[in-house]
């Protein structure tokens, strides 16, 4: 039996120019595959510089052999050859048949082709929300399809859709345009965004502006997706994403999320992004203090039950208290010392180290009488002395000893200060 006599070859195996089974499949710069003889005739004999299937200009005339497709076509040919048919027996397991061997690579190629087709139609279709959901379902949890999505210009396409939707919404259009923007963010949020190419595409203004708009004005899920995107590109080492945003507006939006009673994951992501803003922006700490970050963080720390949340809040407070405005805001809040002291020797070793650093900044670098008094009344001093009797990192112990030595004379004057601790302070003296 000859191939093609009783079974038509899959459409993917046919050259888009000749519509015949490809012998030597090659791919052009637009991502479309042709038979080498046909595309060379198109380029050389007819002198064309466009992709025959899409009519897009070719970035180059280089032809890349599609070895995977060639192997699949050759296997399909072999499956229908007389020798293959003769050697097959009814008892042969279907799991070892050539048809089964072809199923995975062939289906993957078909899926990739469907994804490229969906991306090609995305900007023109009036049903963008449905189309975006279709794209997301194709790439979610599938690393190969995510790579295909990025390689096919998917991030740029989705970015343009987001930018267009945001522009329509800003021009007084139907709010459904903003829904398109939110749905587009769900597509980007499923990507790992860990490679330089993907991060670079997201950092383009057409993509970043809508992401920041979602962070500030989107619903809970949209804000979560926006923060997922920002966290990923920040973790990938993209330190310049903060350069193109209004730090003041971003910090206000994040603090608003943290102040509201919302989903744990939402507030947790907000802490991640706030850490990135404070770390990456030169004016970030001062801006954060100015819009009330210390107050919000102290309130959160006082009620924090999650270890990781408590550690990140303490890390933020440490960074904010490095600037004079941050230390003043810390001293002005009645619960600040108590909230920090509560975490010592209770949450984790890291939380204890961070708490000591915060107290060091507000009691040694720039001490205020109110902070020193609160440290006695809230039990922070007792905990510091307790730390001297346990194994802690040398830097933390050094700061603890120095705090006690510098401020011991002030703390001893309080009648509530335990007698045994007064004796211990004398020993340190």
UniProtKB/TrEMBL annotation:
Keywords: Transferase, Ubl conjugation pathway. Pathway: Protein modification; protein ubiquitination. It catalyses: S-ubiquitinyl-[E2 ubiquitin-conjugating enzyme]-L-cysteine + [acceptor protein]-L-lysine = [E2 ubiquitin-conjugating enzyme]-L-cysteine + N(6)-ubiquitinyl-[acceptor protein]-L-lysine. Pfam families: ARM_PUB (PF25598), U-box (PF04564). One of its GO terms (biological process) is protein ubiquitination. Residues 8-83 form the U-box domain. Its EC number is 2.3.2.27. Residues 74-100 are annotated as: Disordered. It is an enzyme of class 2 (transferase). Residues 81-99 have a biased composition (Low complexity). One of its GO terms (molecular function) is ubiquitin protein ligase activity. PANTHER family: U-BOX DOMAIN-CONTAINING PROTEIN, WDSAM1 PROTEIN. Functions as an E3 ubiquitin ligase. This is U-box domain-containing protein. The lineage of its organism: Eukaryota, Viridiplantae, Streptophyta, Embryophyta, Tracheophyta.
């Amino acid at each position: 039996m000859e191939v093609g006599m009783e079974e038509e070859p899959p459409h993917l195996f046919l050259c888009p120019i000749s519509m015949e089974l490809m012998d030597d499949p090659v791919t052009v710069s637009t991502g479309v595959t042709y038979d080498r003889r046909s595309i060379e005739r198109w380029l050389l004999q007819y002198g064309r510089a466009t992709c025959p299937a899409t009519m897009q200009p070719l970035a180059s005339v280089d032809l890349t052999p599609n070895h995977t497709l060639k192997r699949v076509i050759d296997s399909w040919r072999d499956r229908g050859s007389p020798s293959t048919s003769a050697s097959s027996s009814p008892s042969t397991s279907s799991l070892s048949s050539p048809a089964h061997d072809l199923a995975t690579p062939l289906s993957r190629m078909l899926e990739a082709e469907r994804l490229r087709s969906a991306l090609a139609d995305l900007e023109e279709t009036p049903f963008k929300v449905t189309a975006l959901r279709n794209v997301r379902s194709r790439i979610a949890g599938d690393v190969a399809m995510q790579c295909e999505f990025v390689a096919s210009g998917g991030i740029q396409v989705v970015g343009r859709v987001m930018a267009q939707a945001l522009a329509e919404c800003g021009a007084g259009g139907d709010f459904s345009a903003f829904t398109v923007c939110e749905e587009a963010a769900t597509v980007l949020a499923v990507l790992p965004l860990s490679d330089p190419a993907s991060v670079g595409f997201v950092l383009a203004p057409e993509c970043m502006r809508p992401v920041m708009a979602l962070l500030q004005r989107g619903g809970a899920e949209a804000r979560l997706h926006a923060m997922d995107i920002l966290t990923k590109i920040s973790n990938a080492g993209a330190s310049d994403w903060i350069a193109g945003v209004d730090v003041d507006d971003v910090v206000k939006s994040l603090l608003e999320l943290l102040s509201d009673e919302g989903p744990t994951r939402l507030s947790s992501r907000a802490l991640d992004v706030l850490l990135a803003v404070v770390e990456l922006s030169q004016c970030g700490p001062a801006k954060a203090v100015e819009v009330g970050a210390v107050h919000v963080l102290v309130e959160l720390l006082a009620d924090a039950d999650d270890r990781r949340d408590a550690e990140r809040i303490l890390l933020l407070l440490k960074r904010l208290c490095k600037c004079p405005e941050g230390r003043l805001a810390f001293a002005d809040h009645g619960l600040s010392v108590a909230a920090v002291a509560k975490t010592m020797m209770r949450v984790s070793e890291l939380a204890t180290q961070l708490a000591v650093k915060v107290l060091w900044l507000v009691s040694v670098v720039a001490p205020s009488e109110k902070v020193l008094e609160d440290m006695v009344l809230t039990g922070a001093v007792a905990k510091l002395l307790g730390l001297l009797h346990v194994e802690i990192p040398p830097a933390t112990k050094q700061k603890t000893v120095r705090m006690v030595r510098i401020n011991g004379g002030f703390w001893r004057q309080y009648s509530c200060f335990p007698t045994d601790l007064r004796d211990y302070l004398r020993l340190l003296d």
